[in-house]
């Protein structure tokens, strides 16, 4: 691996990163612009060519990160074989980067699992709120059954969240309360007292599930902080690695 090949791989990576940023900026601009019939007609003729050009550019650069990493690894192997004094520092940096990448991946997986668990738990709350608002028994019972089914899915999401949290050193066993769907007695004694009892049960369950949602949010915050810290550390280590290669 020659210096020129390594520099070329670095430049391809830069062009790919620039293209990714440009796509994001274009998307933001498009959302802010009001699309009219005139603007559509004015741009449709060149849209296809522009899209094809972007697709060709993306195809040429999509593997830039992998090729750059391969070039770096090949250059480091050559430095080690040649007894270059930078080889030991580069090997240490590569090991540290591997550890940080693994930690970052685990934080991101735990965060994603938490987001999905939170959405599922909030779905249970939505169904319970609907059940509490309906005074007609049939509607209330239907909403409770929906909440019960949603709670089963939410618990599965919580179980996944717990397993992902274990990977980042957090040992928890979150458990949703049982959704009370008992209705046989209520059907025959549907009056002011039983209606109040049903609503009280729903409210208590809702409070417990709302507390679970709040707990998930409280856990997501340190996961976000940890992810930011690990990204900053990864960028710092990557910068040190590039400096040792003379890629400033």
Would you give an account of this structure?
This protein has helices at residues 3-32, 37-61, 64-81, 86-133, 137-167, 184-188, 192-244. It is mostly helical. It folds into two domains: 1-84; 107-231.
- How many helices? 7
Order of helices and strands: HHHHHHH
Helix content: over 70%
Please count the beta strands (DSSP E, at least 2 residues each).
0
Note the overall shape. elongated
Count of structural domains: 2
What is the beta-strand fraction? Answer: under 5%
Spans where pLDDT lies below 50 across 5 or more residues: 183-194
- Mean pLDDT metric: 80
The chain-level structural class is mainly alpha
What is the makeup of the main sheet?
A: none
Roughly how many Å is the radius of gyration?
A: 28 Å
The termini sit apart by 18 Å
What structural keywords apply?
single chain; 2 domains; 85% helix; mainly alpha
Summarize the structure.
The protein is mainly alpha-helical and 248 residues long. It is 85% helix and 0% strand.
Write the layout of secondary structure elements.
Layout: H1 3-32, H2 37-61, H3 64-81, H4 86-133, H5 137-167, H6 184-188, H7 192-244
């Amino acid at each position: 691996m020659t210096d020129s090949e390594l520099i070329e791989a670095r430049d391809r990576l830069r062009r790919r990163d620039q293209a990714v940023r440009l796509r994001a900026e274009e998307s933001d601009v498009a959302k802010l612009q009001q699309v009219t019939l005139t603007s559509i007609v004015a741009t449709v003729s060149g849209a296809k060519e522009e899209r094809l050009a972007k697709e060709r550019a993306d195809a040429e650069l999509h593997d830039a990160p992998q090729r750059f990493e391969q070039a770096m690894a090949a250059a480091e192997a050559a430095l080690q074989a040649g007894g270059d004094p930078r080889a030991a520092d580069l090997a240490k940096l590569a090991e540290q980067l591997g550890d940080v990448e693994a930690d970052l991946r685990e934080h991101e997986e735990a965060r994603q699992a938490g987001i999905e668990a939170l959405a599922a738990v909030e779905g249970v709350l939505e169904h319970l709120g609907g059940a509490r608002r309906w005074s007609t028994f049939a509607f209330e019972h239907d909403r409770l059954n929906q909440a019960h089914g949603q709670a089963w899915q939410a618990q599965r999401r919580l179980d996944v969240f717990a397993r992902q949290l274990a990977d980042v050193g957090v040992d928890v066993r979150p458990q949703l309360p049982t959704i009370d769907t008992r209705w046989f007695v209520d059907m025959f004694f549907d009056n002011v007292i039983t209606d109040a009892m049903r609503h009280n049960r729903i409210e208590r369950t809702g409070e417990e599930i709302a507390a679970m949602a709040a707990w998930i949010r409280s856990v997501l915050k340190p996961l976000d902080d940890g992810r930011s810290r690990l990204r900053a550390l990864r960028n710092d280590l990557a910068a040190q690695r590039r400096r040792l290669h003379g890629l400033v």
